[in-house]
Write a structure and sequence with these properties.
The protein contains two helices and four strands. The protein is an alpha+beta fold and 71 residues long.
Length: 71
């Protein structure tokens, strides 16, 4: 997992979850279930936060990505 804290208050914070041989929805759900976003909500005055899932399919040798807005 990676978290990106904005240096400037107007920038958007985001959390990146990397998975192998999983669907992007699984990664997004992990971000939500583990409440990674709660710390960002306090630090960013409840502004928009992005959940980014990047998944690699080792059989197809392809990457899939999903981005979801969290509030």
């Amino acid at each position: 997992d990676f978290t990106f804290h904005p240096r400037r208050k107007n920038d958007t914070a985001f959390i990146v979850e990397l998975k192998k041989d999983e669907d992007p929805e699984v990664a997004i759900n992990q971000i939500k279930e583990k409440e990674y976003v709660e710390k960002f909500k306090k630090e960013n005055n409840h502004r928009l936060i992005l959940a980014v899932a990047i998944c690699y399919d080792s059989k197809m040798k392809e990457h899939y990505c999903k981005i979801e807005e969290l509030r």
